[in-house]
Amino acid sequence: MRIAQVAPLFVRIPPHEYGGTERVVHALGEELSRRGRHELVLFGPGTSEWPGELVAICPQPLWEMHTTDPLAYRVLQVEEVVRRSGEFDVIHSHVDYLPWLAVHRLRAPLVTTLHGRLDLPELRPLFAMHPEQPLVSITDAQRAPVADLGLNWVATVHHGFRLGEIYHMGRGDGGYLVFLGRIAPEKGPATAIRVAIQAGIPIKIAARVDPINFDYYQQEVEPLLRHPGVEWVGEQGDRGKDELLGGAIALLAPIDWDEPFGLVIIEALATGTPVISRPRGSLPELMRHGEHGFLVWTEEEMVAACRRVGEIDRARCRQWVLERFTVERMADGYERAYSLVQKRSFRSVAPELEPAE
């Protein structure tokens, strides 16, 4: 099968540090290539590494270019996919809804993996306008905000990686908690710091601060960094995350939103590190309360959970994710999705290019 992968343009593939969707795209490409029965073309940012042809839409990832109009490159990406669409058996988009505007000019079926949150009110009329578009969710929970719209869900495919090669079993003997991810209100970094302080356990903050959340960082997070038990360690690559998570008593992820997936959850569990979070969104799909950590609601319950993490079997945490979130499972799921999209219809193909009756 000849497959086009359409990737976000903001971060290189694979990313050096931050970039969840980009990690997924690269892992999927490597596994599909390894199987030896697919030809893969990536429409993505320059400097990316890819096991096939790379169509560089921009010379560098957009976050490195500091362009004033990133939408121009995104439109250019869609137009290049349209121009070459006749070369493919299926087009797999990871860039949300923008390609839908050109769907009737595509000469191959399109399937879209939705990687982000679906609870934003502006998405509802847009999705309702395109109910025929074949969609893949990354967890079943992700679908909940738009469950009433009758969308064309093809599959749920959990993210998968070679976690056992990237992350190693840690002993959790560092004596600290860890928060890993973006500094954003919905991720709960300030809550994580408060919980750690109340529990009397040091915490390390490994995070990225995006410009859009800089005010939140200055007002809510930065003042808490002055506490002697709080250490800012910044963004981390795979090796840094492996060491940081493996030495932690637990990962604190006090999310205040319905997380669509949460890569950091399976990354932590891959090192054997229990997770303390809230039972929102995808979390009950990714872990089991009392077995791989604790899913609780209040800060007081999180403080109590910090003192109970010794009850969690770290080896079972690692075994859980190594069995369930594999790149092989992910690639199997997408191969089935590609076949289904091809067989169901050519609704996303220009009418004049449909086969005659």
Overview of the structural elements:
The chain is an alpha/beta fold and 357 residues long. The protein folds into two domains: 2-162 and 326-353, 3-Layer(aba) Sandwich (Rossmann fold); 163-322, Rossmann fold, CATH 3.40.50.2000. The protein has 13 helices and 13 strands. A seven-stranded parallel beta sheet has the order 3-2-1-4-5-6-7. The chain has a six-stranded parallel beta sheet with strand order 10-9-8-11-12-13, sandwiched between helices. Helix 1 (20-34) packs across helix 13 (327-344) and helix 6 crosses helix 11 (299-306). The protein is globular, with a radius of gyration of 21 Å.
Query: Which CATH class of the largest domain is shown?
Result: Alpha Beta
Helix-strand category = alpha/beta
Low-confidence stretches: 346-357
Corresponding CATH superfamily of the largest domain: Glycogen Phosphorylase B
Tell me the Rg in angstroms: 21 Å
* Run of helices and strands: EHEEHHEEHEEHEHEHEHEHEHEHHH
Report the total helices: 13
Question: What is the CATH-assigned architecture of the largest domain?
Answer: 3-Layer(aba) Sandwich
- Please, how many domains? 2
Question: Main beta sheet: strand number and arrangement?
Answer: 7 strands, parallel
Strand numbers in spatial order across the main sheet: 3-2-1-4-5-6-7
Distance between the termini: 24 Å
Query: Overall mean pLDDT score?
Result: 94
CATH topology of the largest domain: Rossmann fold
Strand content: 15-25%
Shape: globular
The portion of residues assigned to helices is 25-40%
**Would you count the extended β strands for me?**
13
